[in-house]
Design brief:
Layout (H helix, E strand, L loop, with lengths): L1 E6 L6 H11 L2 E5 H7 L8 H8 L12 H8 L3 H29 L4 E5 L14 E6 L2 H11 L4 H10 L3 H7 L2 E4 L4 H11 L8
Parallel strand pairs: 1-3, 1-4, 2-3, 4-5
Helix pairs in contact: 1-9, 3-5
Amino acid sequence: MRLIGITGGVGAGKTEILDFIRQHYRCKIYLADEVARLIQQPGQVCHAKITALLGKGILKADGCIDRDRMAARIFVDNELLKKVNAIVHPAVRQYLENAVRKARAEGNTELFFIEAALLIENGYRDYVDEMWYIYAPIAVRKERLRQSRSYSDAKTEQIMQSQLTEERFRQNCDFVIDNGGTLAEAYEQVRKRLEAYTWQE
């Protein structure tokens, strides 16, 4: 089983690339953001720790963490943000490592993908077999986010400033998919990279 990390800046088109892979390969795909949300649910590993740190004021009536309230607390306090990350990131890593072990033991999966914008910063470079960078020019990404998420240029710019530069992404990745053109062109790059693996219509 080949373990592949997929990363890239906001608006680069990681979701579309992964949808294509999901449809056509014997694979498992885990999104770190989805795992992080899952392990913050009531009864899961991070819920009690985050509630103890931030207080019950961040909880909704059903006991779930209100992500907007939590964000309002931690993104104005860098120390709190670090503490929350210190709870969540190791737990996400543990969850993913367990999933990888299970997939290897079952033996039915050819490709296992882990996607996150922060894979490199969170130390996955030495864990995965290879790291892919989904690239698109800044102007293209801004236009996509304007259309798909109604982001203003200012909001997109703010997010981009918090992410790695294109140079850093390229330095830390083994393979670059140029997704600045059509999706068909990007998909063809994926097909060539994965031609040794089973193709499913």
